[in-house]
Structure formats: structure tokens, C-alpha cells
Specification:
CATH architecture: Alpha-Beta Barrel
Distance between the termini: 22 Å
CATH class: Alpha Beta
Radius of gyration: 20 Å
Number of domains: 1
Largest sheet: 8 strands, mixed
Bound molecules: N-carbamoyl-L-aspartate, zinc ion
Shape: globular
Structural class: alpha/beta
Oligomer: single chain
Length: 426
Amino acid sequence: MKILIKNGHVIDPDTKLDQVADVLLEDDKIQEVKENIKEEADRVIDARGCYVMPGLIDMHVHLRDPGLTHKEDVFTGSKAAARGGVTTLVAMPNTKPVIDNPERLSYVKNKATQCNLVNVLQAGAITQGMKGEELSDIEGMVRAGAPAISEDGKSVMNAQIYKEAMQIAARMNIPVLAHCEDIHMVNGGCMNEDTNSEKFGLPGICNAVEDTIVARDILIAKDTGCHLHLCHCSTKDSEVMLRLAKEEGISVSGEVCPHHFTLTSDDIVEGDTNYKMNPPLRTKEDRQALLEGLKNDVFDVISTDHAPHTMVEKGVSMKSAPFGIVGLETSVSLTITELVDKGWITPMQMAEKMSYNPAKILHLANKGSLKPGKDADVVVIDPKESYVIDVKDFVSKGKNTPFHGKKVNGKVKVTICGGRVVYEDK
Ligand SMILES: NC(=O)N[C@@H](CC(=O)O)C(=O)O
Ligand SMILES: [Zn+2]
């Protein structure tokens, strides 16, 4: 099976190629990338005017499987990923039960194999049941295929337990994906603590909730030598600390989610729980720092934190609704509209942050690259096509997004995973 992608703007951070060229895929590998490939192919894709990038890698997805499949499951989540140009995703372990042992990890792996759409990698929980008390079988889960460990949804509040986990992660050569939040300081907060929370009369979440744990986690990573990846950074001081840690040579990376670089708490529509996520939308100053940090490559990764919830669950007050919004089907458009079109990042940086860097952090040697011999995971994106985001078009079970009705530029046209077309915009 040969697929020839013709005349696209090929953007490959691995080879630094950034020009119009053709890409030939043979079976599940990249065969050749150059101008004017003459080869016969089973399928020819006209990519004129489109970016052709290595398939996107989303390091932060909640698939909700097992146990919470009314919100999402491996199949619907994989379909949403494919529609978003994502060919590899890391699923977080805050499921029911929590994925804290090799058997549960294999359940997700097997289900993903049956779905046969995108590459689903499952992160293992750091502590048993995510209770923060006893370490889970980290070695066993890594042997069963976990590319990382994470307690996402929470921080491991006991620093000694976290240190032991980081020592194991360092030994096993896997990153720790850190959700930074001092739970004692949240104190019932449901949005950022600022003039808007005062105006709405809602309890706030201060920046220190995130910042204190970012500082702590960087210092424990320094001590143990493990790679620390900071999930969903939202504050200006997270950017400062990540920058300083990198300057000091500590092995650390950080991600920003589209909602945090697009919106601030000023955008919150009173009572609309689609604006409730954790960490919360922050202030203009925080957003500005995130944009600068993305531009200057302090932040290595754009991930979605795709967090589906049902309308019923979300259809309550700001105080009692669960935190989280979906992201898989809007991240490419928001990244192009808010970052590329406004000059914050180049298309090459987009490919780095959405594919190449995640592959490096997760040690996925055959991904995030269009070099011949690498996996035939490719996304074709029309950066100029504009459209209005409509939750009715989502294939995810989750419709919880504040971006319904937003006009955006940039549309995923074709997603190819392992040499097979897994999504096509028609
Ligand atoms: N981000 C969120 O608001 N919610 C996530 C948890 C998380 O990513 O921290 C979820 O699982 O719903
Ligand atoms: Zn989180």
C-alpha cells in the first residue's frame, strides 16, 4: 500500500525541512520526502496549500476508560484524536478503577488494539488508587508499556512518596507527568482568584496553588535526576520557574493547553461551566507569560488536557460542576488561530510542540518525524480554511467546550496513522 502526499508544505522538525515537497508512504513507514516524487501510488492526496506534519502527539488525554465510559471511551476518544490530527495520545490513569497495575494497563492497550485507529499509550498512576499513600507497581506498568507515570487530576502531596516514585522513574528512564496543585490551598475554589471571582461571588484558586508545587516538583526532580514534565502550566511564575530550571540544566519540560493560551478569566460567561477547568483560566498577565514562553520555547509542548464530561454532569452550578473541557477536536485550529496566525510561533514550532518534542520526552524513537524509515503517521492541515467550531460535529462523547461558535482558521484535512487514512475531512 502506497500513499503519495503531493505538493504540501512539509514541516519536519527532525530534518528541518520547511518547504513544498511530496511525501511517499509505503505500508506503515515513511518511504521518501522530496520534490516531485514520480512513483505510482494506490492513493494520491493533493496537499496544495496545506501543512504536512508528523502526526500529532497529545501527551494529556482523559479517555475515561474503564469505568467512566458515559463520558468517553477508548473508541470515541481515538476517533476524536484522529479528527484532531492526533496519531498518538497518552491517556491519563484517573479512571474507575484507577490504572495502577499492569493488568489494567493491558485492558486499555487491548481495547486500543481492537479500535485500531490511533496509537493509545496509557500512563500509569503513581500511587495505588491515586490515594497518595502507597506506590503502585511502577516497574510492572512500564514493562507493560506505560511511557510515563502520572497522578494527573491530583498532586502526590507527600513529597517523600513522590521522591521515591521519581527515583524509580529515573531508573526506568520514563518521565513523570506532573499535575501541580496544592489541594489544601484550593479550599473549594472553582475559578481563578481575581476581580472576576469577586464579581461572581465565587471562591477563587490562587496562583500559589500551582506555583508552590511546581517549585517543589522541580527541586525533587533535580534531586532524583528524573525527567519532570509539567502538565497544563497556567501561571506566569510557572513559566519563570521552568525557564530557571532549564537554565540550571535540570531535566524538565512543560506543556500549555489551548484554553490557557486563548482565554483569560475575563472571558468567563457567568454561570457557564464550560469555562471551569483545572487549572483555571488565569489573568491577562499569566496568559501573556504563557504566550512569551511558547514563543521562546520555554514551553516544549502543546497538549489538550481533553477532559470530557456529560452535559448532565456539567449542567449544574459553577461551584459543583466537575473541572475540565474537551480539546482533541479544537487544538489544531486554536493553535493556528491564536499562535501561528498572530505570529507567536512558526509552523515549525507548532510541529515541534505538537509532535517532535512529545516524541522526545516520551522516548518514541520512530515518531514525531518524517524521516524515511519512521512510522507513517502524518497529518495534513489546511491552515487557511476557516470554519465555526460546532459541538454537533464532535465525534467525542464530550461536548463541554467554551469554544462552541468560535470562528477559527486551520482545519485537519487528513490524518494518517501507520500508513492508513484514519480521518478525512469531507
Ligand atoms: N483538567 C481538568 O479540569 N480535569 C481533568 C483532570 C486534570 O487534567 O487535572 C479531568 O480528569 O477531568
Ligand atoms: Zn491535571
